[in-house]
Amino acid sequence: MTVASNTKLILTGAALLVAVVGCSVAVTRAMANIENPPEDDGGQPTSAKIVRSIRNTMNDTRYVMGPPIQAYIIPSVDVHQNEDTTDRDKRVAYVSGFTGSSATIVIEEGAAAFWTDSRYFMQAKNQLDNETWIIMKSGQPATKSIQEWLVEKLPQNSRVGIDPFLMKAKEFQQLSAYLESHGHNLIALPTNLVDVVWKNRPELKLKELEPIGDQFSGKRVPQKLAEVRKAMKALTADIMIVTALEDIAWLLNLRGSDFEYAPLFFAYVIIAENDTYLYLLKQDRATTNKIDNHFQTEHIDIIINEYNNTVAGINTVIRNTKGMVLLSSASEAIQTIVPSERRLEAESPIMKMRIIKNDVEAQKMREAHKRDGASIIKYLYWLETEIDDQNITEIKGADKLKSYKSQHEYYRRLSFQTISAVGAHAAMAHYIPTNDSDRQITRTELYLIESGTQYKDGTTDMTRTVHFGTPSDTEKDAFTRVLKGFISVATAVFPRGAPFSFFDAMARRALWDVGLDYDHATGHGVGAFLKVHEYPPLISSKNMPPGMCKNMFTTNEPGYYENGKFGIRLGNVLQVVDAPHSSEHFSGKGAYKFDDITMVPIQKKMINVDLLSESEIQWLNEYHAGVRNNVSPLLSDNSNILEWLERETQPISKQNEECTETTTEQPETTTDQ
């Protein structure tokens, strides 16, 4: 559906011209010959100094194209709405010192406020200067939203500025309407004020693109384009502007290295009735022999242009056509280029195709997780056997795990920065060790490891919590309740399109039974050699279409955290598959279930078996048998690791718990060995 704009903009439509500022397409700032930025008082650029410099630009008509603004909003995303950005786009980190992936800053004349979600409350407290920042805990009942805070703080008839490339059009319009109803205006600024004051801003490191053949993609580009155009026609759209980088990479069967963890590259794509246009940052990357051969093999003609010509290209296509233009989660800056009467806002048909993997993608994902499991098992074995003889710290551990993973030819990079957390550090859900915080892994505290990998055939994400000594009863009870929720999701049988909130409640029930909970979502979608965070699915209390569908891949990662003490989380990747013998379920519509594709043992010493039901014990034993059978062939060159894996995956039972613990130290030799 279309959304009419009631926003008072300084620049609209074709007046939004574009230039490249590093990796960012930015509004050309009709001010290309601007003089030097505001002077600061010299010295190291502390957070307080940077905020002061930004306030100076808020009053400088060279940058705001009109009267001064009274507040400035700084999102943590880039121009393609990515949360995990390049260093050049880490504006929130530069201004505040906060290194998490999700936050929003608002600077007004008398205060600077910082919003982030529950994953980062402790991190924000530790990293922010409390004399400069007011920490706003998003999602908490007492916390005001950004718009509420602005209305409370600002004098009447205030102007609130933002870079329109850094906010989705729908969000921009909603915020604008709210502010206008309270006597204020949201202004799409022609200049990003952080970029004005950011000295020594990092340069981009652009590398070659990598083709993905149909033995990995399962579908060639012409077929994908035909399916997209068919979906466009069903929506009555003649043109589609593709802004999501994961959609572009998937559509063209290409991957990049412009980002540290996601295999993406900076580009826009315009799909017209007969032509496909690629606007690529450093366009000569698409004219190498390797990429030329890829396009020839795929039997497609792509019209390639430079990234900074995107807006001119959109304007040209619009002038030469008359139909509707499909926009999906585009930024306010991109959306306003398209005349309002020609805008068609709807979910991206590419997104729907991408999140439901084809059979080849699904099989490759399973293979990648087997190899990943073998690497993690090597790491856990190494930790257990070397922990007393080496000073193994959180950072050294993460580096060792990476070294195991990187030995495979399909390894490309990690899919996120490894969470390697000892004791109280694990109570911070997204803790990343630094040289200052790095602690030794010992036998006296819990250790949480969350690691993901980008292989050419799939993306992984796995979490385990282990103890190399003797866990306390409190830790075991909490771990077991997390495990019960983990098993509840893993064993679910459900109708097609089941709402995501259904699985979220299942994961939390055993914790809720004793008044415990966790503050993050239970799971997220995982791409096929794409982003490790893919939405939908998103297993949380909120629902979004289309619900859980066959060949979606989602994480299952419930947890529990005690601030200052310990944190527990388990995480597997699940594939949605047909449930067996279910043709009559749900009035003949059939049913789905999950297959666990992560192949890593769950530490048995952390389990209070008395809290598990017989069916939960059966699931655990069957899961461990699957891990052993799938991963053992990949570890056949090391008998010590195989013995360790055999021990760690031996069955447990309530009836003979003590005996099980004793006998598994020396597993019996069977005809299978």
Task: Give the number of domains.
Answer: 3
Q: Summarize the biggest pleated sheet.
A: 6 strands, mixed
The total count of helices amounts to 22
Summarize model confidence as the mean pLDDT.
Answer: 91
Fold and architecture overview:
The protein has 673 residues and is α+β, with helices and mostly antiparallel strands. The protein has three domains: 13-197, Creatinase/prolidase N-terminal domain (Creatine Amidinohydrolase, Chain A, domain 1), CATH 3.40.350.10; 210-355, Creatine Amidinohydrolase, Chain A, domain 1 (3-Layer(aba) Sandwich); 359-663, Creatinase/methionine aminopeptidase superfamily (Creatine Amidinohydrolase), CATH 3.90.230.10. The chain is 33% helix and 19% strand. The protein has 22 helices and 30 strands. It has a six-stranded mixed β-sheet with strand order 6-5-4-3-7-8, sandwiched between helices. A six-stranded mixed β-sheet has the order 14-13-12-10-15-16, with helices on both faces. It has a four-stranded antiparallel β-sheet with strand order 23-30-29-26. Helix 4 links the parallel strand 5 and strand 6. It is globular and about 75 Å long.
List keywords for this structure.
6-stranded mixed beta sheet, Creatine Amidinohydrolase, Creatine Amidinohydrolase, Chain A, domain 1, disordered C terminus, globular, 33% helix, single chain, 22 helices, 673 residues, alpha+beta
